[in-house]
């Protein structure tokens, strides 16, 4: 099962990804996570990506495509994968299709999660992430039991550098102008499912399962 999670920042892609990979046993590939790991480890790739990420802009296509396709060649992707945050431009989608075709594969389903801008802003600005295990919280409507501390592992909670109000606005704009055209791209391919991302995470997941099958 080769899947893509599409949707604006804050739509809940990361949260749903955790549940999808658990149920369907496929690897979760988040280009954003790969970049953040590189930034943490101080690699050259991390330094390059950070320049763009801090402003809420997209990392250049060729760099992202190289990272994503290299990851897709790893053994754990043989029987399927869940792409989260890639592709983000029509160019990336075309490159992905070329790559998959070359390897006798295709995209099976694109899950397009939609949420209104106001709700996205609230979710992102109030989001906190555990430095140790990556669990996410919302200081307004899903706070941890103890401020700044992860309920799951006791790790320290932090705010992502690109979750500030200004950067979030830019990320949503970038999504609308550069990533939204992908909806039409996959509409034409006939493999997109539209999911309302504002109905609560369990309901969103149930909808996804009804699309993918048990
Ligand atoms: P995410 O964690 O998916 O929200 O990604 C965080 C940031 O990483 C984005 O705002 C971009 O700067 C960069 N990024 C992640 N995936 C891509 C991609 N497919 N194309 C370009 N930039 C990306």
Automatic annotation (TrEMBL):
Region (NMP), start-end ranges: 30-59
GO BP of this protein: AMP salvage
Binding annotation for ATP: 10-15, 127, 136-137, 199
Region entry LID, spans: 126-163
Catalysis performed (reactions): AMP + ATP = 2 ADP
PROSITE patterns: ADENYLATE_KINASE
EC number: 2.7.4.3
Domain Adenylate kinase active site lid, chain residue ranges per copy: 127-162
Pfam family for this entry, one: ADK_lid
Binding site for AMP: 31, 36, 57-59, 85-88, 92, 160, 171
GO molecular function: AMP kinase activity; ATP binding; zinc ion binding
HAMAP family: Adenylate_kinase_Adk
Family per similarity comment: Belongs to the adenylate kinase family.
UniProt xrefs under PANTHER family: NUCLEOTIDE KINASE
Function, as annotated: Catalyzes the reversible transfer of the terminal phosphate group between ATP and AMP. Plays an important role in cellular energy homeostasis and in adenine nucleotide metabolism.
Domain notes: Consists of three domains, a large central CORE domain and two small peripheral domains, NMPbind and LID, which undergo movements during catalysis. The LID domain closes over the site of phosphoryl transfer upon ATP binding. Assembling and dissambling the active center during each catalytic cycle provides an effective means to prevent ATP hydrolysis. Some bacteria have evolved a zinc-coordinating structure that stabilizes the LID domain.
Protein name: Adenylate kinase
